[in-house]
Amino acid sequence: MTDTSSPAPRTAPPGCPAHPGAVRLAGLEYQQTPAQLYRALRGKHGAVAPVLLDGDIPAWLVLGYSELCYVTGHDDLFARDSRRWNQWDAIPPDWPLLPFVGYQPSVLFAEGDEHRRRAGVITQALEGLDQFELARECQQIADRLIADFAGSGQAELMSAYAHALPMRAAVQMCGMPHTGADTQRLVDDLRISLDAAEGDDPVAAYARVGARIQELVKEKREKPGPDVTSRMLQHPAGLTDDEVVQDLISVIAAAQQPTANWICNTLRLLLTDERFAVSVSGGRLSVGEALNEVLWLDTPTQNFIGRWAVRDTQLGGRQIRAGDCLVLGLAAGNTDPQIWPDSHVGAENAAHLSFSNGEHRCPYPAPLLADVIARTAVETLLERLPDLVLSVEPEELTWRPSIWMRGLTALPVEFTPVVQ
């Protein structure tokens, strides 16, 4: 499924970022509070820090808001085709981050006119979704999920609600049944490939995702319907089945895991921050404010790998060599003290980098659709269960041990049982 062939030199160039000051981005003690890591790295290295990925593979972590905007706005210097990487000789076939960086002929790694062609197909396919209809479908999904646990007076919302709702919405809009063992296996494999836990095999999981989406594309080629997959297949750009498979994986993955964490991180904020305590049950404005604040302070996608330097250049006072890998530190950029000098993040604006920036940002209208899913999920839950509270102390909540995604391991709650 992944092709790690590279036209670039296959050895690390002189001056690559593997030096004693590099910090490992695996097994971090900072995983529960990554903001501490970002502050420490920024204090020691500035806006661009040398880091080590799994297996001590060198890379650069871009921490500064301005530097991130520069990298994502200059595809001529920092491109997406990972075959440029100067570290491929050091990458084993079972490397855990391979699903992120192994070159695939998808919109994620396309550049220039080809990227615009592929992104244009996705944009038009998503524009075919009626946002009001999507909200109605999400509310129906939410009602069914809530009904499964409403009578018990308690629930673990990560598994029973926050992950389940965007998963069902995403597969439904792509033309798959939103329930069933087949769909659940797809979602499990997406989680493993995006955010593997100990003992998981992300490479094998990603291959299974590809196989299932391939089946879906074949089904829709033979029998199209009013869904994203069919619209992509029917687009005048004439994407091949393989191209649609690759790009659909990107669409579904982006709609499911990050949106699930956005929902849960927002619920955590609403249930633990006294600023929202008075208005949550009665007003919807606080939900919108919480959703936006989470994108600034607890964005679901903390770091994104990555960009690859097209040629030798400088960034943030660092000498970047051709073929070096840059990890986009989206969470660090959102809290950069250069844009928030008073240490107060103004969550009322939407200039965050949570959907990235530049030509390779999440294609319009994907962020709007994600907002519809997340907002409907949060509002419906609070309306149906207005006395919802945590069933543990806030400090007992734990985050998944990931430097890439920001999401809780569990969100246990209790409420007055509701007879359906």
Can you describe what's shown?
The longest helix is centred in the middle third of the chain and has 32 residues, at 241-272. This protein is of the alpha+beta class. It has helices at 34-45, 65-73, 98-101, 112-127, 131-149, 157-162, 164-173, 181-194, 202-222, 228-234, 241-272, 274-277, 285-297, 330-334, 366-384, and strands at 23-24, 48-53, 57-62, 78-79, 154-156, 304-309, 313-315, 318-320, 325-328, 389-390, 412-414. It has one domain: Cytochrome p450. Helix 5 (131-149) packs across helix 7 (164-173), helix 8 crosses helix 9 (202-222) and helix 11 (241-272) crosses helix 15. The chain is globular, with a radius of gyration of 21 Å. The strands form three sheets. Strands 1-2-3-9-6-4 form a six-stranded mixed sheet. It contains 15 helices and eleven strands. Strand 7 (313-315) and strand 8 (318-320) form a beta hairpin. It comes from Streptomyces brasiliensis. Belongs to the cytochrome P450 family. This is Cytochrome P450. One of its GO terms (molecular function) is iron ion binding.
